[in-house]
């Protein structure tokens, strides 16, 4: 304190404290321009001097955009000098139309604990870099939310997108409501509403979204969030006889350790839904092979993962499953609901399919299928006959029946070439799991998890399988090492980073280098 | 039809004397042109002055009333060339384009114009695209003023100052027989504010009237010996005349106390930023009254030595605040001080960064450093001896993803690049050069196609070294905007003449889309004042290309792929040109959406397509996204404990273009995609058939459901 007094700072213009500096960070196309227009109208109507600027540039095409507004109460004839851009550490109100944009604002220093009210929508608009990862590349919004709460003097964090869409409006309206409800501007809510009315477009819907968001921001709490994803309850529908058999399976499942049964139940449902009850029994048998080796000292990690991935491996994605899924009543209902199809409207449904020779060969009886697949001549022939893009109208009888009949081939499935391939692959993998876990439990768990790499159709499926094989081919180099499990995990994660497997190549080279050493 | 309509705002351009205009900088400039009796206007669109062109186009009726000719020029070169009308005739003319790329294109015309000199005021309004949000290489237009000897105004970024600069620009141009460049930065173009208007003026001599009485002055022809005379004239007459005008009209401004030991010299465009830094240091009040003297250069070229030396008198040090590099102004001012044997210390780029935008923080740091060195007593105690470290901001750099711009939802260019990716998988990677325009977004993820861009209309030309062909053919991309800008001759003509064995893909989306959807010669719209509907294929054939293919629906990924494959593998030599045409979806939606809503309301039958993904069929590999990148194609996490990776989901912004379905089909990706066409106001028969089908399908579904176990999820 004494130092400061000695230096006697100059007295700054007290009126600078009345300047309100507000920045809007949005994703191009979110209506940041409309929002800043409303704010400007509002400020001017309240007798404030106000200046807006924006930097849209090419960012209007889905990039990040920024709008900047300054306002201050003035006497007639006075013209304040406002800045044209926000400065770090010098922003009073920051509106972010998406949570990662709030993160960007924090990084740029536009949100500071001494002054900034942060009004941000917690929803996500995913960036391309997050979406194109073959695995899960979605950035962690919770980290930004936590940062927002420490970086801001006050944080109003709401799902503004949902608030707006629920009211048939767009996010600019709910953000404007959030601004009103936060009380960060010294204006009455009615004045905000007047600004919306003066805009003249979609006024009623905007006002609804505005009010909902204003109330939520004022009360400082989230409006009733959508029912938390509690484990969905699955009601059982079907003939009495089958229900009884199902109960027997469920009883068998109850013998499993609790931690395992938790995942084995959805697993069992998945395979029964895929094929039939007998297939469900096979699933439990396979799972029990793993469970008997697992004494629970590791919390049944191996068995839990096995419950999950054996089910996924057994319910492989074949033509029959796709056709079955596409012709179910529940699907038709879901689409009608999502597309807002009311009774006075008609819905046409077109499926985009492209069967290849492999899919046809896969449907043939195991031996014949194997022979055909081994013959390039036959494969070329099948390709010529079947391989082309097909649009199937499943709202018409012809299209629906075609898929319905294929979907009904479940009885035939067990005899097919594809089934034989899948079973063999599954059993090889399971044997490998058991052999590995015997010596190194954690490594065994990771071998189970490697199954995650097998997914997709056609080329994607082939690529997934090859990544699966390449990762597991590293096992001999890893076995016996203390960090073997950790390395297998890293290999798997690398395999999910990009399509071509560049990251996987890098990780494999590392493993090879220390294996050689 | 441009992306943004200014029809409503254009009415404000009719305001008369004593009224107040409130709005954007761009409109203020247009209003100022009319108030100053401009005779003709033109330009070429591009951020940040696209909207200025749109305003002019929307104001054409008013312009015609006033006898003002408006031309949407073919390029910046054409725009600058139009100013030739002011060489021999006392008519004021103004053209606009973006800097620095537009100035590059226009430089030939500008150099000739500057050499000739002008009779009527000639104004080049340059929207300087520098700093945050810029889409181009970071250079300064300033250099062009220096090399060609025309004058550069850089007014303070508020509406009254900008409006005044237009008036003074014309007057300065006439007083010194020199064209004047008026620079407005990106934020100034979009800054809002008010100014008092004057009545619009009819040009004293209209271009129509001038045509009746042609004039020529031999002395203005740029040929020796006159061109030598022009150079002497620039230095001996025009320059001194300009300096005199600048001094007499007080174009440069001084603020703050007369006597102080330190001072700041800044470009007009930097004024608000400088004041804000001083405000934050407690050295300026809200109205900009400053304790540190400022010399604000609203004219940044030429610099007036006498004014500057007077400002420096009695000062120990001055700070030059000049954004961008190289530091032309600082160098010139240093020379002045040195030649005068002055002891005044001059700072600039030693205290401020050489490159990059002068943001609030940069400005604050620079001004603080300067005052700390030369007037520490002026600084507030907090700055001199901060007793509290600035709060640490959480590090989110590894969490927050970058958000580069990309193609819009439903963009017809996306399938072209998806097709190219698929061809690449078959034939291997190719040498690909791109042009300027929306299609350049293909260089970013997920497509990552094309690694070079040499300029507007230069895509195919920049592959010229590879024209001879080889094992593989080079590919170039050019947009319809670039094609008409100069690509037809510079790129396609070049390919024909040099017997190029490569492929050029012309992306025809019916507009100059990246700049805001302005019409161009091949646009399909009927434009009452422009000649549209000139097919690109006709132009290409006309210039001598034999192998030409037209694709009328780019969304047909399979056909797109086939045509590209053919072009790359055909035995035929010579240039190959594919014209890939589909309307820009942004513009199409803007046009069709209101029509569709009205039709539905009126009870007419309308099919509204939208795409969807079956989440239990999607396996979460996201291959479709890597071949599309559509904003409406996103991801969602499932509640299913058996699933690891998020699946693809299509949100309500889908416009049903069909790209994702076509790609899934052509690339044999997966069967998850479906299209739902919702028929609004279906006909009676249609409804009857639909009911019948639904009943039959229901029966089949129930039949199967009764024979198996189903787990119905009830959340």
TrEMBL record, chain A:
Keyword Repeat: no
Superkingdom of source: Bacteria
Pyruvate/ketoisovalerate oxidoreductase catalytic domain span: 28-214
GO molecular function, one term: oxidoreductase activity, acting on the aldehyde or oxo group of donors
Domain spans labelled DUF6537: 261-472
Keyword terms of this UniProt record: Oxidoreductase, Pyruvate
NCBIfam families noted in UniProt: PRK08312.1 (NF006179)
Protein name stated in the entry: Indolepyruvate oxidoreductase subunit beta family protein
Organism for this UniProt entry: Stappia taiwanensis
UniProtKB/TrEMBL annotation, chain B:
Lineage summary: Bacteria, Pseudomonadati, Pseudomonadota, Alphaproteobacteria, Hyphomicrobiales
Pfam families: TPP_enzyme_C
GO molecular function: catalytic activity; metal ion binding; thiamine pyrophosphate binding
CDD domains: TPP_IOR_alpha
Single GO BP term: small molecule metabolic process
Protein name: Indolepyruvate ferredoxin oxidoreductase subunit alpha
Lineage top rank: taxon: Bacteria
This protein's UniProt keywords: Metal-binding, Pyruvate
Residues annotated as domain 4Fe-4S ferredoxin-type: 609-640
InterPro entries referenced in this protein's UniProt entry, alphabetically: 4Fe4S_Fe-S-bd (IPR017896), HACL1-like (IPR045025), THDP-binding (IPR029061), TPP_enzyme_TPP-bd (IPR011766)
Source species of the chain: Stappia taiwanensis
Gene3D superfamilies (UniProt xref): 3.40.50.970
């Amino acid at each position: 304190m004494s130092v400061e007094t000695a230096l006697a700072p100059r007295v700054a213009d007290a009126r600078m404290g009345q300047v309100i500096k507000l920045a809007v960070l949005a994703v191009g196309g979110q209506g940041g321009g409309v929002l800043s227009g409303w704010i400007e109208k509002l400020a001017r109507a309240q007798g404030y001097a106000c200046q807006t600027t924006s930097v849209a540039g090419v960012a209007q095409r889905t990039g990040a955009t920024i709008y900047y507004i300054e306002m201050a109460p003035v006497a007639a004839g006075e013209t304040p000098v406002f800045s044209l851009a926000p400065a770090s550490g010098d922003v009073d109100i920051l509106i972010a139309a998406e949570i990662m944009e709030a993160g960007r604002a924090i990084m740029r220093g536009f949100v500071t604990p001494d002054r900034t009210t942060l009004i941000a929508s917690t929803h996500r608009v995913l960036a391309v870099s997050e979406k194109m990862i073959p695995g899960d590349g979605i950035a962690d919004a919770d980290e930004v939310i936590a940062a927002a709460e420490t970086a801001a003097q006050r944080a109003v964090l709401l799902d503004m997108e949902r608030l707006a869409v629920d009211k048939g409006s767009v996010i600019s309206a709910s953000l404007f409501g959030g601004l009103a409800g936060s009380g960060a501007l010294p204006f009455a809510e009615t004045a905000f509403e007047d600004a919306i009315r003066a805009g003249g477009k979609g006024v009623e819907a905007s006002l609804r979204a505005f009010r909902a968001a204003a109330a939520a921001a004022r009360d400082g709490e989230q409006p009733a969030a959508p029912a938390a994803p509690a484990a969905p309850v699955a009601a059982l529908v079907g003939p009495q006889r089958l229900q009884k058999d199902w109960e027997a399976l469920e009883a068998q499942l109850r013998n499993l350790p609790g931690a395992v049964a938790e995942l084995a139940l959805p697993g069992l449902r998945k395979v029964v839904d895929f094929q039939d009850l007998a297939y469900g029994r096979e699933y439990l048998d396979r799972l029990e092979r793993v469970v008997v080796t697992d004494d629970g000292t590791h919390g049944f990690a191996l068995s839990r993962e096995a419950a999950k991935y054996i089910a996924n491996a057994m319910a492989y994605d074949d033509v029959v499953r796709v056709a079955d899924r596409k012709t179910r009543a529940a699907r038709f209902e879901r689409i009608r609901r999502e597309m807002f199809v009311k009774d006075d409207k008609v819905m046409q449904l077109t499926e985009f399919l492209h069967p290849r020779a492999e899919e046809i060969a896969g449907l043939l009886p195991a031996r014949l299928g194997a022979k055909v697949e081994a013959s390039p001549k036959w494969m070329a022939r099948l390709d010529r006959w079947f391989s082309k893009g097909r649009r199937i109208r499943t709202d018409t009888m012809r299209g629906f029946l075609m898929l319905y009949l294929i979907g009904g081939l479940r009885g035939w499935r067990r005899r097919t070439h594809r089934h034989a391939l899948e079973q063999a692959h599954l059993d090889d993998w399971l044997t490998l799991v058991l052999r590995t876990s015997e010596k190194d439990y954690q490594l065994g768990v990771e071998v189970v998890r490697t199954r995650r790499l097998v997914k997709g159709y056609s080329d994607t499926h082939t690529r997934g399988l090859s990544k699966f094989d390449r990762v597991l081919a590293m096992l001999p180099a890893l076995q016996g090492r203390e960090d073997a499990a950790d390395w297998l995990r890293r290999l798997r994660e690398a395999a999910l980073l990009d399509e071509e497997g560049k990251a996987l190549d890098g990780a494999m080279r590392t493993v090879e280098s220390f294996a050689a050493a | 039809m441009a992306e943004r309509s200014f029809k409503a705002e254009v009415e404000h351009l009719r305001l008369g004397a004593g009224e107040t205009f409130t709005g954007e900088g761009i409109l203020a400039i247009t209003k100022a042109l009319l108030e100053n009796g401009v005779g003709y206007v033109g330009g070429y669109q591009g951020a940040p002055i696209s909207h200025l062109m749109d305003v002019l186009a929307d104001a054409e009726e008013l312009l015609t009333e006033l006898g003002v000719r408006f031309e949407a020029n073919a390029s910046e070169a054409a725009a600058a060339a139009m100013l030739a009308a002011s060489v021999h005739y006392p008519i004021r003319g103004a053209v606009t384009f973006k800097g620095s790329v537009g100035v590059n294109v226009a430089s030939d015309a500008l150099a000739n114009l500057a050499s000739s000199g002008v009779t009527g005021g000639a104004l080049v309004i340059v929207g300087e695209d520098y700093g945050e949000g810029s889409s181009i290489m970071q250079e300064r237009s300033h250099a062009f003023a220096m090399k060609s000897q025309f004058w550069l105004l850089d007014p303070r970024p508020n509406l009254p100052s900008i409006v005044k600069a237009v008036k003074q620009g014309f007057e300065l141009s006439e007083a010194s027989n020199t064209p004047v460049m008026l620079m407005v930065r990106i934020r100034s173009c979009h800054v809002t504010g008010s100014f008092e208007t004057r009545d619009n003026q009819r040009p004293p001599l209209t271009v129509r009237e001038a045509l009746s009485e042609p004039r020529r002055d031999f002395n203005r022809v740029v040929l020796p010996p006159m061109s030598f005379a022009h150079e002497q004239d620039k230095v001996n007459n025009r320059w001194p005349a300009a300096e005199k005008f600048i001094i007499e009209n007080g174009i440069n401004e001084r603020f703050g106390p007369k006597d102080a030991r330190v001072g700041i010299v800044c470009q007009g465009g930097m004024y608000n930023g400088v004041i804000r830094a001083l405000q934050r240091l407690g050295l300026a009040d809200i109205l900009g009254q400053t304790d540190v003297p400022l010399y604000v250069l609203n004219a940044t070229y030429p610099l007036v030595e006498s004014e500057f030396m007077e400002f420096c008198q009695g000062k120990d040090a001055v700070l030059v605040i000049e954004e961008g590099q190289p530091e032309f102004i600082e160098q010139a001012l240093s020379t002045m001080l040195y030649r005068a044997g002055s002891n005044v210390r001059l700072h600039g780029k030693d205290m401020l960064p050489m490159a990059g935008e002068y943001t609030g923080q940069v400005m604050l740091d620079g001004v603080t450093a300067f005052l700390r060195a030369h007037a520490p007593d002026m600084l507030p105690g907090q700055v001199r001896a901060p007793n509290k470290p600035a709060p640490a901001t959480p590090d989110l750099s590894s969490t927050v993803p970058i958000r580069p711009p990309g193609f819009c939802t439903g963009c017809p260019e996306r399938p072209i690049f998806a097709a190219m990716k698929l061809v690449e998988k078959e034939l291997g990677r190719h040498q690909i050069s791109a042009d300027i325009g929306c299609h350049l977004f293909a260089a970013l993820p997920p497509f990552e196609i094309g690694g070079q861009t040499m300029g507007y209309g230069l895509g195919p030309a920049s592959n010229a070294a590879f024209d001879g062909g080889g094992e593989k053919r080079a590919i170039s991309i050019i947009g319809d905007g670039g094609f008409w800008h100069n690509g037809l001759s510079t790129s396609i003509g070049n390919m024909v003449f040099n017997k190029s064995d490569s492929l050029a893909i012309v992306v025809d989306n019916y507009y100059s889309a990246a700049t805001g959807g302005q019409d161009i010669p091949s646009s399909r719209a009927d434009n009452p004042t422009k000649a549209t509907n000139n097919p690109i294929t006709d132009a290409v054939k006309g210039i001598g290309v034999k192998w030409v293919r037209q694709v009328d629906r780019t969304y047909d990924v399979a056909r797109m792929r086939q045509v590209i494959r053919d072009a790359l593998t055909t035995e035929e030599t010579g240039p190959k040109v594919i014209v890939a045409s589909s309307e820009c979806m942004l513009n199409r939606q803007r046009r069709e959406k209101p029509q569709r809503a009205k039709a539905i309301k009126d009870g007419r039958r309308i099919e509204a397509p939208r795409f969807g993904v079956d989440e239990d069929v999607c396996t979460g590999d996201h291959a479709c996204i890597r071949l599309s990148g559509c904003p409406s194609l996103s991801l969602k996490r499932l509640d299913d404990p058996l699933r690891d990776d998020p699946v693809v989901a299509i949100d309500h912004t889908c416009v049903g273009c069909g790209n994702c379905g076509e790609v899934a089909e052509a690339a044999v990706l997966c069967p998850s995609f479906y299209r739902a066409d919702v028929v609004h106001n279906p006909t009676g028969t249609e409804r009857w058939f639909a009911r019948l089908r639904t009943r039959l399908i229901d029966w089949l579904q129930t039949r199967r459901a009764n024979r198996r176990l189903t787990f119905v999820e009830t959340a």
